[in-house]
UniProtKB/TrEMBL annotation:
The active site is at D529. This is Pectinesterase. One of its GO terms (biological process) is pectin catabolic process. Residues 376-661 form the Pectinesterase catalytic domain. PANTHER family: ACYL-COA THIOESTER HYDROLASE YBHC-RELATED (PTHR31321), PECTINESTERASE 53-RELATED (PTHR31321:SF57). Belongs to the pectinesterase family. It comes from Flavobacterium pectinovorum. It catalyses: [(1->4)-alpha-D-galacturonosyl methyl ester](n) + n H2O = [(1->4)-alpha-D-galacturonosyl](n) + n methanol + n H(+).
């Protein structure tokens, strides 16, 4: 009989999938979450309600993962009636039972059909009966052998139940069905027992409370395993909803306050702000891979699985072997499971208001007088305010009225640095160009996110306007291994002076819609297209060094932009092996690049420019020179579609014109 019932369930599930196309709702939870209260009085809603009544077992609960809005045949309805007394596969997992109860409440609010009320109350009784004496709930009730008997926080199962108990015990208006006073009293006791269980299962590390695990043993309350890839661990995801539930309690006890405060501190301690998920899509737009990409100042996320003693994230495949990184497990589990979550950010967002309301002291970060005056020092020996540049940037005020100066002491800072859009008027000031070094080794192949991987590689990424840097070396250390950006500037009115910018292919990327950028007294070296992008940029008194025979610039100047890349009084040099170098080629066909009063070494090819196999570029680019010198300056041998400026034309290339009158004064400071 048991095998027959299982066969019936499988049959119903397969048939319901086949009928799904007949319904306008893709997922059952979408139906329940409808905000149009009047819809629940419609004929369509009543038809769905009949299905929900049929799927409910006599014990009061429902099975999971059923698309109850799908049309049922008469045969299917009869089979569901036969299953009414069956006690298998009834659960609160994946929202089951709790969500059906909510649906029945919404139906009863519009249609006073007593069957809806009876269904809701049967579901409530089921939840009360399923609770352990210690306050926890199993994943399945009646009990199913295996890990299903554990107290289950996984996928917020127990929190969903307790939220029901809370609403009913407080006699709120959330549910339209009002149980008897006797049942209300039972829900109060159930809720209190559940909170007691939560407090007892909060994990301690060396005597300090932290978070919760997805499962806890129903007898010992200790952390417990579930599926092969769900080993005992602290959970960033499940812990969040538990804390939010605790925070919703009016007049919390001292034990609850301690629990919340401890969990909040643990969330702060374990948040990850240097990674973000990137999804790789195939040509059809389907996700075929997930990668965690190192970044800076990313929105916080938390690992789903953390080591009980170290909080270190770990990952598992179906073999149950712990791995240190997501890319070490197979694609099926890597792409088919949520390994990171941002759920705890809601706790951090609400914590201050909760703490003030409940008389809990909110700790504040002490700031030095230097920070208050917008002067911050970074030093690797600990003598400054920070030892990492990114930490200093993260501590800088957003959209300040005055310049924020970050003084960086000598040292090699192996980190990716990002100046976000909100960190405007920020200056990175190195102690010395030779010995203050920012270095990282990302490259196209290492990032491996498809055709746009280049743009994730910068050692330093500048998004904020009015940025400046001086006395620094910025370096991409990945070597000659393809595209690898050292410095990427997106922000407007950026000024870089007395800096060394080192890389190979794609060393310096200058972009941003209508952005204007200024480089003075800098040393820039690379191999191919090592100065590229669509920004308007002026280079003055810079050394541009080619370390391989290739191309210096690859401008992508937008159409109708008056200036692109302009080099004035610059010196073009090369390593001995770089003997045939082009001044530039067009990344986009409206590229503009001009060299004025520059010293061009003998490595510059006589023809000067190349069209990148784009015939249209010869009609639309503007490549030009004026009054240059050196063995590489051969105006008579240049390609016919380039230009030699007249004196009058060259006079237009002033800092005021190139960088616009409205900002020229800023650059002259």
């Amino acid at each position: 009989m048991i095998q027959l019932n299982k066969t019936i369930l499988v049959f119903l599930f397969v048939v319901s999938l086949g009928l799904n196309a007949q319904n306008t709702y893709k997922n059952w939870p979408d139906v329940i979450r409808k905000n149009d209260a009047a819809w629940f009085a419609s004929a369509e809603a009543k038809t769905i309600a009949e299905n929900v009544l049929l799927y409910q077992r006599n014990i009061g609960g429902w099975p999971k993962n059923i698309q109850m809005q799908n049309t049922l045949t008469e045969t299917e309805k009869q089979k569901l009636i036969e299953l009414k007394s069956d006690l298998h596969e009834i659960t609160t997992d994946n929202g089951a039972t709790c969500q059906e109860m909510l649906f029945m409440s919404k139906m009863y609010a519009q249609v006073k059909d007593e069957r809806y009320k009876e269904s809701f109350l049967k579901g409530l009784n089921y939840l009360l009966e399923a609770q352990y004496d210690n306050g926890g709930w199993p994943q399945f009730f009646p009990l199913k052998k295996g890990y299903y008997t554990h107290i289950t926080y996984n996928d917020n199962s127990m929190v969903n139940i307790l939220n029901i108990m809370k609403e009913i015990s407080e006699e709120s208006d959330y549910y339209s069905i009002k149980p008897s006073k006797d049942i209300v009293e039972k829900t109060k006791k159930s809720f209190d027992k559940g909170i007691y269980c939560i407090l007892k299962t909060q994990y301690k590390q060396n005597g300090v409370l932290t978070g919760w695990c997805a499962q806890h043993d129903e007898v010992t309350l200790a952390p417990a395993n579930a599926r092969a890839f769900e080993l005992v661990s602290l959970s960033g995801f499940e812990s969040a909803k538990i804390v939010l539930l605790l925070m919703s309690i009016e007049k919390p006890s001292p034990e609850i306050i301690t629990s919340i405060k401890s969990a909040h501190d643990w969330f702060e301690k374990t948040k990850i702000t240097n990674l973000e998920e990137k999804r790789v899509l195939n040509d059809a737009g389907k996700i075929i891979d997930k990668k965690m990409i190192p970044t800076t100042n990313a929105a916080p996320i938390w690992a789903r699985f953390m080591d009980l003693e170290t909080n270190e994230p770990f990952f598992c495949d179906r073999d149950g072997i712990r791995k240190k990184s997501l890319d070490q497990i197979g694609s099926e589990r890597r792409n088919g499971y949520a390994w990171y979550s941002d759920a705890p950010k809601e706790v951090l967002k609400k914590y201050s208001a909760w703490a003030i309301k409940n008389g809990v002291k909110v700790s504040s970060v002490e700031t030095s007088s230097k920070k208050k005056d917008n002067f911050i020092t970074v030093a690797q020996d600990g003598s400054g305010d920070f030892i990492k540049i990114q930490d200093a940037i993260n501590a800088s005020p957003s959209f300040p009225y005055e310049k924020v100066i970050i003084n960086i002491k000598n040292g090699t800072y192996n980190e990716k640095v990002r100046i976000p859009e909100w960190n405007t008027h920020l200056t990175l000031l190195g102690e010395s160009k030779e010995n203050t070094i920012i270095a990282f080794d990302d490259n196209f192949k290492k990032i491996n996110l498809g055709r746009n991987s280049t743009f994730y590689t910068p050692t330093v990424l500048v998004e904020g306007d009015d940025f400046s840097a001086s006395n620094l070396t910025i370096k991409n250390t990945s070597g000659d291994n393809g595209q690898a950006i050292a410095l990427s500037v997106v922000g407007n009115r950026a000024q870089v002076s007395n800096c060394t910018i080192l890389g190979n292919q794609d060393t310096l990327y200058l972009s941003g819609k209508e952005s204007k950028q200024y480089f003075k007294d800098c040393y820039i070296e690379g191999t191919t297209d090592f100065i590229f992008g669509g920004a308007t940029a002026l280079f003055e008194n810079c050394e541009i060094r080619s370390i391989k025979s290739s191309y210096i610039t690859a401008a992508s100047t937008p159409e109708r932009t008056p200036f692109g890349f302009v080099f004035k009084n610059c010196k073009l040099t090369a390593n001995p092996e770089a003997t045939t170098v082009y001044l530039g080629r067009p990344w986009r066909i409206y590229a503009k690049t001009v060299f004025i009063n520059c010293d061009l070494g003998k490595h510059i090819k006589p023809e000067g420019w190349e069209n990148w196999s784009k015939p249209d570029a010869e009609k639309n680019t503007f490549y030009a020179e004026y009054n240059c010198k050196g063995e590489g300056f051969q105006p008579k041998n240049r390609v016919s579609w380039s230009h030699q400026l007249t004196k009058k034309e060259a006079e237009k290339y002033t800092i005021e014109n190139i960088l616009k009158d409205s900002i020229a004064n800023w650059y002259s400071k």
